[in-house]
Amino acid sequence: MSVGGKVDSCRRERCGRLRNVWSPLRICACTATFIFLMATGVLGVQASSPGHWADQWLAESQARQIVKGYPDGSIHPDRPVTRAEFCTMLIRLLGEESAASAARRLPSHFADVDPNYWGKGYLEIAREKEIFTGEGNDMASPDRSITRAEAATMIDRCRLVMGVPLPSEAGRPFSDESEIPQWAVDSVRRLSAGGAVEGDSDGRFYPQRNLSRAEAATLAIRLLDLAGGRWDVAGSVLEVGTGGGDLVLSVQGETVRFAVDAVGVQVFGSGERIAMTSLGKGQQVGLVLSNGRVSVVVVR
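The structure corresponding to this sequence follows.
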């Protein structure tokens, strides 16, 4: 029995109804002993950036269409993210692209957003959900690079929209906490306690540094993880077929067989790319699907 479309629709339902209980194991509703998900290609998913520190985060965010590559196939992970781009990523994360498309046809609430500006709809929905407030005098400055402090406050507001709780205690203090703007301190502390934001190796947060595309992808996937929606399927490995063409998992007591494209699927262990055939029996893995097809496999 093929349930590829069903699993993918379940993921879209989770994104569209954020106050539901998120479950990475919707597939368990199926009662078949063997479930075949044909994944003979990874349509619409570009390669990310092998060797980059955020390679896995970028791969997951691309599979979920949160971060998209450029027309030439590049991802430019270290390029700064603009305010409009970050709003776009968060609205995609929330599954509100249809609303953004509709909002693009309406007048903007921001005085500096042109009627034909590409990101107008995303800015409007982010404003409606109080994720993005812009600046004084109804200005959005959509093409200005967003700082890490600004991004933290927006991620924290997005968390509230998703109904994701965080620990009440403050996280590990950063050595440059005195440089964090007062309006961002509480958000940074909450996200640090929840594991969504981390400092650099020197223990600093660098609140005024511009956020990169790689960092934006990482924040988005960590937020999705806190919401319990990071994986479309999660289970333990039972078997990997010769050549990596089949992956058999135990998912809540059910045996689930996936036929995967061993060349196109991206597999990660400890943040590094690994071969599908290197997966061992009993390892816990999470799967990210794209259009009902296995796109990313991560050893948890």
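The chain has eight helices and eight strands.
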